[in-house]
């Protein structure tokens, strides 16, 4: 049973929707195209780096895996001391963007070819979103037997 743990520092970023555009081709024609937003590409790169360091040269996971993800969001500066304490205790939770499902998708895509062969291997998920003093995402991946 292989377990991979790592932390992705900084504000969590949800997977952005593809941006539609036109691509010019030889002969002067144009074709519709989709591209991934730059913010998503950058975040997936950060995720891949954190996953690569955590793998420490081990081979890619090839079987089904479970993921436990804790999304730590920055608290608004406008929170009172009481609300700040409640947020740190977990009784006040973030209901703002990014969506936890979009953060999960960015994590899964960023780990393709880094921790596992493909994100279809992620068959179990536990995802939570909280406020914290330090924003970031903690990921634990366990290979299922």
Q: Could you characterize the architecture of this molecule?
A:
With 145 residues, the protein is an alpha+beta fold. The chain has one domain: Holliday junction resolvase RusA (60s Ribosomal Protein L30, Chain: A, 2-Layer Sandwich), CATH 3.30.1330. Helices cover 26% and strands 33% of the residues. The chain contains 3 helices and 6 strands; from the N terminus they run E-E-E-H-E-H-H-E-E. The strands form 2 sheets. Strands 1-6-4-5 form a 4-stranded mixed β-sheet, covered by helices on one side. A two-stranded antiparallel sheet has the order 2-3. A hairpin with a 5-residue loop joins strand 2 and strand 3. The longest helix has 18 residues. The radius of gyration is 18 Å and the shape is flat. The N and C termini lie close together (7 Å).
Keywords:
145 residues; alpha+beta; 60s Ribosomal Protein L30, Chain: A; four-stranded mixed sheet; two-stranded antiparallel sheet; 3 helices; 6 strands; 26% helix; flat
Q: Residue ranges: pLDDT <50 for 5 or more in a row? A: none
Biggest sheet features: 4 strands, mixed
Assembly level: single chain
Average the pLDDT over all residues and give the rounded result: 94
Query: Helix coverage percent of residues?
Result: 25-40%
Alpha-carbon Rg, integer: 18 Å
* SSE order: EEEHEHHEE
Give the CATH H-level superfamily.
Answer: Holliday junction resolvase RusA
Strand order of the largest sheet: 1-6-4-5
* CATH architecture classification: 2-Layer Sandwich
Q: What top-tier CATH class fits best?
A: Alpha Beta
Number of strands: 6
CATH topology: 60s Ribosomal Protein L30, Chain: A
Number of domains: 1
Q: Into which percentage range does the β-strand content fall?
A: 25-35%
């Amino acid at each position: 049973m292989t377990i991979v743990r790592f932390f992705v520092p900084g504000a969590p970023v949800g997977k952005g929707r593809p941006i539609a555009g036109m691509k010019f081709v030889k002969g002067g024609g144009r074709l519709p195209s989709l591209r991934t937003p730059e913010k998503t590409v950058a975040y997936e790169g950060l995720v891949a780096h954190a996953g690569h360091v955590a793998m420490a040269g081990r081979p890619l996971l090839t079987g089904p895996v479970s993921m436990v993800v804790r999304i730590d969001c920055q608290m608004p500066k406008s929170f009172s001391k009481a609300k700040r304490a409640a947020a740190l205790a977990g009784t006040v939770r973030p209901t703002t963007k990014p969506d936890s499902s979009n953060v999960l998708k960015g994590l899964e895509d960023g780990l393709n070819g880094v921790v596992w062969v493909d994100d279809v291997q992620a068959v179990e998920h536990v995802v939570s979103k909280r406020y914290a003093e330090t924003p970031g995402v903690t990921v634990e991946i366990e290979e299922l037997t």
